[in-house]
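Deliverable D2.4 — example input (structure tokens):
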């Protein structure tokens, strides 16, 4: 963990974040491609409202979406999304739903109520299934609530560890997720389109290294120095979506319950307990919980920390610096990520 002084020092190194709110000058480079002004973020110690940390469920070889038979149940896994679980959730859940639909059953248990569990549960309901969620914790007490919430499949896998088969699955999950989220844009789900500026060069940027956007649907623009206000040679602009977990996750729970879904708060100490459930199909969305529950020793917790500043309505763009530091403008404060570190 960093102390407040270190966090503030780090923030001040991000372009357009400064300790005094100087309005930008009026040239085109101070506006997003959509025409919104790029305002400075006001960073000072007395604007910090909270700091939170969470553990990403990371697997070097990528997330797991597969079906297997265990005793008399079909278990469909959907976990291990690393730093991109909010982003990918609808996509991997779509793949999980397709696997479940290959069975003759129409009743399932979803284990977990983070972004993966809730999207899986909603898709199963839409496919005509009777669904019960079993989870030891509910929002706001999940890792998904800790996420910054940018639509960006970042830090999801290590290039050296993935198979070609996984990359096909990844591309498919990204495409589905990108499409599903577009239907959720608006205040009800706390999802909106936003300009994202990625500063390239200098120290290697782990966010850029591992981030991908679906092929053919990318709106990425490489900006020349006259097209952006940042003191950096290479800046990539992407229109992406920002998902506010504090709005999105309760809205998903609400949709699930309105559609007749049941939620049971229950912790499974081991896989045997899960397999005793009455439902013939179990969709496992337990994130890091799968390490113990399904003996997945490849799952690694990767710690991330967000520091929240008081919201500034006039700031409406994302900036990702060149050392993994970023700023997202959310209505519940502006989270700024400082670092990634293995636990
Ligand atoms: C600081 C930080 C910033 C992030 N920023 C982003 C971002 O900008 N964009 C993005 O896409 N992703 C981001 N992520 C990653 C994202 O948060 C995760 O990938 C995502 O939350 C994983 O969702 P999940 O539903 O699979 O797991 P979780 O949200 O962890 O949910 C797991 C569920 O399973 C339940 N469970 C676990 N074990 C058991 C058990 N034994 N019995 C019963 N229930 C169990 C839990 O109670 C919980 O309900 C970030 C993560 C962190 C920490």
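Example output (designed residues):
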């Amino acid at each position: 963990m960093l102390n407040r002084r270190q966090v503030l020092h780090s923030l001040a190194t991000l372009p357009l974040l400064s300790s005094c709110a100087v309005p930008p000058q009026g040239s085109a480079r101070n506006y997003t491609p959509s025409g919104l002004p790029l305002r400075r973020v006001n960073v000072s110690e007395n604007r910090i409202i909270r700091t939170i940390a969470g553990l990403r469920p990371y697997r070097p070889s990528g997330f797991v979406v597969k079906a297997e038979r265990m005793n008399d149940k079909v278990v469909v896994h959907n976990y291990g999304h690393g730093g991109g679980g909010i982003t990918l959730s609808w996509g991997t859940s779509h793949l999980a739903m397709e696997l479940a639909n290959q069975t003759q059953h129409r009743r399932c248990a979803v284990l977990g109520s983070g972004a993966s569990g809730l999207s899986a549960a909603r898709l199963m309901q839409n496919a005509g299934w009777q669904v019960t969620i079993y989870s030891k914790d509910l929002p706001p007490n999940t890792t998904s609530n800790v996420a910054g919430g940018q639509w960006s499949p970042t830090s999801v896998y290590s290039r050296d560890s993935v198979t070609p088969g996984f990359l096909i699955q990844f591309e498919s999950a990204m495409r589905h997720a990108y499409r599903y989220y577009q239907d959720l844009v608006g205040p009800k789900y706390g999802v909106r389109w936003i300009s994202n500026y990625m500063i390239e060069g200098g120290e290697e940027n782990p966010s850029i290294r591992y981030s991908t956007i679906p092929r053919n649907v990318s709106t990425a623009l490489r900006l020349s120095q006259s097209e952006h206000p940042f003191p950096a040679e290479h800046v990539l602009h992407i229109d992406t979506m920002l998902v506010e977990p504090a709005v999105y996750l309760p809205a998903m729970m609400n949709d699930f319950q309105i559609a007749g879904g049941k939620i049971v708060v229950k912790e499974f100490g081991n896989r045997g307990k899960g397999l005793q459930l009455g439902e013939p199909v179990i969709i496992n969305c337990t994130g890091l919980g799968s390490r113990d529950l399904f003996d997945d020793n490849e799952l690694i917790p990767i710690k991330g920390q967000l520091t929240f500043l008081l919201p500034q309505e006039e700031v409406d763009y994302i900036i990702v610096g060149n050392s993994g530091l970023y700023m997202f403008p959310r209505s519940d404060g502006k989270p700024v990520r400082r670092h990634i570190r293995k636990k």
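Confidence is low (pLDDT under 50) at residues 19-24, 204-210, 339-343.
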